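For consistency, the fold was encoded as tokens, which produced the following:
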Amino acid sequence: MTEWYPSGIGFTCPAIVGPPFVSSKDHSGPNQGPCVESFSRHPRRFWQNLPMRLGEIAGIAAAQRVTRAVIHDVAETVALGDTERAVAERLETGLERAGVRAWLHTPYAWFGDRTRFAGFHQFEPDALPSERRLEEGNGFILDAAPFVDGHPADYAYAGTLRPSPEHEQMCRTLEDLKARMAVWAGQAQTGHELFEATGSAVRAAGFDVVHHLYPAAVLGHRIDGLPRWLQRLPRIGWGFQPPLVSGYALALTRHGLTRRGYPFVNDVEADRPRGIFAMEPHLASGSLGAKFESVLVVDGDETRWLDPGLFGEVIG
């Protein structure tokens, strides 16, 4: 079923409404399900991990709700003549009022052909908010990754100020992609498989793939398991912040030693994706780009979005 979420922004993408989770296995017997199956295989590990897992998921979902609300509120204020920097500053002010004191990355705002990373040679500084002004016919993308009450979030929204058939088609593609990615993530044997399936679907729909231009070519990155002490590291300017850089450096070191827990879904990952991922498929056509960024839980027994709808409510 498809619903349209009125946002007051002008024109937004449709939201896909579906089941709260997609199981990665076929449980055929009565009273069987992902929790029963997991318990039957690893009862001790199940009970040990359950409180931490549920608490972390709930905390990330709450942080994602706050971030989504602020981004949508600011999106309603975006107007012709705004600069990327001014809109990013409004995002930061709104999130700070909501209690944010630390960041994975500070807010980004991209207008026009910058929504497809045109002219980006180094992600930073090129991705940092600029003095580019929003012009008639431009699309825009807003993206922020704060910590809220000690839990990370990462959310992005894509919109236009006026009706755009091309943008609407891109949104329908993202809508379909979001539903399919939950299934692919549960079935994929490697992150590379998920990366390739997503890129192939974007190209089959007639659009260019943009997410390979992110650092490490990430389609998604884990946001669970980040040590709390990282949030006490000092802020440095705009963009990627020490908690993100240090957190992923630790995760990559741990992966190098243990061959487990690779923090990215990208074109080289040989591990099976497991964890809580911020997924950000990004596509483009001509000078217009669009993306969503949502949280996907992949733990081997179930795969589900915390917000099943495209730009919809966080219900996880």
User: Anything to note?
Assistant: Residues 255 and 262 are 6 Å apart (CA to CA). Helices lie at 34-41, 43-75, 84-97, 123-126, 165-187, 191-204, 242-258. The domain at 30-305 is CATH 3.90.230.10 (Creatine Amidinohydrolase).
